[in-house]
Amino acid sequence: MGVKSAVKALLTGRLDREYEKRLREKKTDYDSWVRERERAASLGEDRTASGAGSSESRAVLILQKRGSLAETALRKIEDYFRRHPECEVLYGDEDAAGPDGIRRNPWYRPCWSPDLYLDCFYPGSVIAVRPSAARRHFAGLLLEEEGSRVLYEEPSQIRPGLDALLEEAGAFEKGCVSVQRLPEILFHAEDESVWETYLACPAGEGLFGHLAERAGNFGEGSLSVIIPSKDNPQTLEKCLAALKKALGKDSEIIVVDNGSSPRNREVIEKLLQGETYLYRPMEFNFSSMCNLGAEQARGNYLLFLNDDVELCDDGCLEKMCAKAALPYVGAVGIKLRYPDDLRIQHDGITNLLAGPVHKMQFFEDNRSYYFGRNRFSHNCLAVTAACLMIERRKFDEAGGFDSRLKVAYNDVELGFRLWEAGYRNVVLNNCRGLHFESLSRGSDETPEKQRRLEEERELLYRLHPAFLGTDPCYPEQLNVEGLDSRILPGYITSRNTVQRPAWRVSAQGPEEWRQDECLMVRIETAGPGRIQGYSVVLGDDNACYDRYLFLEKEDGAGERFCMKLEGQYRDDLETNLPDQRNVALGGFRVSREGERLAPGSYRIGVLAVHRIGGLKLFHWAGRCLRVRERDSADAAGT
Q1: Are 621 and 523 in contact (CB under 8 A)?
Q2: How far is residue 485's CA from residue 177's CA, in Å, rounded to a whole number?
Q3: What is the architecture of the domain spanning 490-636?
Q4: How is the chain split into domains, by residue range?
Q5: I need a labelling partner for 388 at 20 to 30 A (CA). Which of 63, 112, 380, 396 fits?
Q6: Residue 113 and residue 180: Cα distance in Å, rounded?
Q7: pTM (2 decimals)?
């Protein structure tokens, strides 16, 4: 080895050790993280809170034998009942703590999810109820010496009483507030096998059938299927063939065409064979096309279906109708897979800091993820309009799709409105379809389409500001950063911090640097709150590079800015790029508060500078940052 190579190896080793130290500082395990939080919380807790209030503020605990109640659980439950008199039933989260005392594998629950409850006993090991309700439904199980606890080992022992209590409390009615979740660890299971009994304990057809009977029907009524389509006769033909296998007698198909060519129009008319064909040449507006079809529909139930979706289960529509008929249910969706019929494309829409995303997307559907997320029906803020069923009266009550959202987020916005009206949207994981995603309108990767996508996302949250960065169906303790489609506890990246903006004028630009796709760059969000994403140098040691976020004014004004990035821990980069060196700190999160950039549109790129050799690599991200007048004014005032 020559002197130059030896020096380079020495310096590289030093940078690798610095990287490992930084990585250790960013990583944490659940036991350490949760105990740090609990110690911090105990210092600021008001220990005088418990003891006051009426006897009805006290709680009866339905408690699993195999484990232990968290130290502060009872006090927190009773305090919650005092502050929320409308709450009749309360549950929370739990973790496992075996003989070694190490805390592991937290199970964070969603807000009250009636459809998940019908599929499994998800409330778990601690359920608190009001004393009067406990006396009515669990009198034979109350411990005589205490009168405030019901102990069980198998959920089947207490499920009948809880089913009756929940129904009595209005848990399966529109706008339910009587069943709530306390976002705290309330129980430490002795081992994770306890939870297997919960996941294997559905309510059964009895409760579901009773609910449907109370609703006055069992999904009975005519069904109208509305399919927006243009210039896709071959794709539409496959969609119709699969659909007709599932359709009953009392149904109709409505195809809304916004301007197919004369030849394709003729082919589509032959395909439909007497079904309704609305040929209306106009600019593509998915919302308007769906609303137009709904106006012509005769059915009590509406199914909005993309022409690139093929239903796979003959009983799918019957199950969707039965669910849509329930009084608390809004929009009903199903699990969609990619054409390989293995990878998940859609399993409900989750609302994260970066916006609406498809959790579980691209995951192989050959095993269960996060306590059956892809196995059980679950409630969610929205489902994709690629396959969305809704009762006609509820669609009319919500006002249909918002035509201002022409391409994207129209289904999300409808879901938000239904949720605000007190309905629960649901995904049925026992039904599936194949989705040949967005064949009708192509990819959203061009700068123009990305700009349109960002504009529609901003409109979505202007219409529904309460949902910005929040999702009651997705526990806040789970991972919410970026567009990560996994479902994992958020403590994994809890030691990341948002970087403050420190822009400086750049005298140099991309024309002076090596533009190379070996520098992988992904901007996940460039919204009004932050710029977030990751960058990785493929085929090299990433510990040897400094990275800079780069902005260039799109209007040719020559304004260029850059700032050095701090490494943020991304365990998904470790997982997805196992053959690359030192990529785990390739993430970045930059706040836009106080950025003080002039209004305009800026291209976004990343510059990577080798700390030893000085090599400069650059790559444009394909995304833009829009700075508006009010952004600048807000920043100047901070």
Answers
A1: yes
A2: 30
A3: Sandwich (2.60)
A4: 53-215, 223-467, 490-636
A5: 112
A6: 10
A7: 0.91
